[in-house]
Write a structure and sequence with these properties.
alpha+beta
């Protein structure tokens, strides 16, 4: 346990509302002090004893409400200043109860021990509770109130029970904090990955678009036909970049060719395979970009899983995509029903063909149209 945790500032969790009600049930031990005070209601000591008992019960219940709020805010221990002030108030009320009500006022010591365990660390609570039990035994002997061994045992037993409960609660809080930290890290990693992929998707495309726009502006009065061609290419590139961004934003799991090239670069680096990948996919026609993205994914996945290669190269043209590695030449072609079969289906849908070749050494997966 920590000595003192900061005030809640993070996420809150739902906790049961019935905890304080269960704590309130055990206030029946304060019935005896109330009855004692009521029996002497015509005396100042009786009235003061009743008021002190009611105030003590209210203060004791308040810490249960406070503890519930702290659990919801994932705070294991209240601030030390608060704990000392709170215990001081309870001690003061308990002393008033004993002075005005006599032996029956000792009932407050059980609740005082429980409160000490609830608001202070174990290394401080343990000696305090033991000292309180010894004080009860000593006081009862001095005042000739009879043996209070049962009360002292009740103080120790209640403290041990509450310590066990608090330990479980604090462990749960630690687990929830760890889960939230992991969730925050996962979100941050996803944001970083998304930003990196978005940069890879747009970075080169926007550069090419800018260069072509500048070229078209210079050629406008010199070569109108060349300008039209550049503007048409500019429109295609911008539409492809917009489509890639929409796929990345709306359904991040959909494939984009620039995104797959970025992921392939990271995956190959993680597998310690020398990667040779194109810096852009601008020359690939719009209708082939998704198919070639699947080609890159399937080819690179097979290289990492099966080839034992040291080098992998991805080649893109306007009509083909190829993944080549220098792995074992005896690598068999993927079995029917594997990812390669799905790639053939996608290729046939746009009039393309999947070609696999064993090299010496290495393996080539190529998708060609036309």
């Amino acid at each position: 346990m920590t000595e003192c945790d900061p005030a809640p500032s993070g996420p809150r969790v739902q906790v049961s509302r019935i905890g304080p009600f269960f704590a309130a049930i055990w206030l029946f031990l304060l019935v005896d002090p109330l009855l004692e005070g009521w029996a002497h209601r015509d005396e100042v000591s009786g009235i003061v004893g009743i008021l002190a008992t009611v105030a003590f019960a209210a203060a004791y219940m308040w810490i249960w409400v406070r503890t519930r709020a702290d659990r919801a805010a994932l705070v294991a221990n209240p601030p030390l200043a608060f704990a000392l002030t709170y215990i001081g108030v309870l001690v003061g009320l308990a002393v008033v109860m004993v002075l005005t009500l006599g032996e029956s006022g000792l009932a407050s010591t059980v609740y005082l021990a429980v409160s000490i365990v609830m608001v202070t660390p174990f290394r401080a609570a343990a000696p305090a509770v033991i000292g309180l039990a010894l004080a009860v035994l000593t006081l009862s002997a001095v005042e000739d109130w009879g043996s209070q061994a049962g009360l002292a045992f009740g103080i120790l037993a209640a403290s041990v029970a509450i310590f066990g409960m608090r330990t479980v609660v604090n462990r749960n809080i630690e687990l929830l904090k760890a889960e939230q930290e992991n969730a925050s890290l996962a979100v941050e990693n996803e944001r970083t990955r998304f930003a990196r992929d978005l940069h890879d998707i747009l970075g080169h495309s926007l550069t090419v678009i800018t260069v072509k726009a500048e070229l078209a502006q210079r050629m406008l009065d010199v070569d109108p036909e060349r300008t039209r061609a550049e503007l048409a290419d500019l429109e295609r590139l911008s539409r492809d970049a917009l489509a890639d961004v929409r796929r990345a934003v709306e359904g991040y799991r959909e494939l984009t060719l620039p995104g797959e090239l970025a992921r392939a670069r990271n995956a190959l680096a993680a597998a310690e395979i020398d990667a040779h990948l194109p810096n852009s996919a601008d020359e690939v026609p719009t209708e082939l970009r998704e198919l070639f993205a699947w080609t890159v994914r399937e080819g690179v996945t097979n290289v990492i899983r099966h080839s034992g290669a040291h080098r992998c190269e991805v080649r893109l043209t306007a009509s083909s995509a190829e993944v080549v590695d220098d792995g074992a030449s005896s690598v068999p072609s993927p079995a029917p029903g594997s990812g390669l079969a799905g790639l053939r289906e996608r290729a046939s849908a746009v009039g393309a063909t999947v070609v696999t070749r064993h090299l010496s050494p290495g393996f080539s997966l190529q998708v060609v149209r036309g």
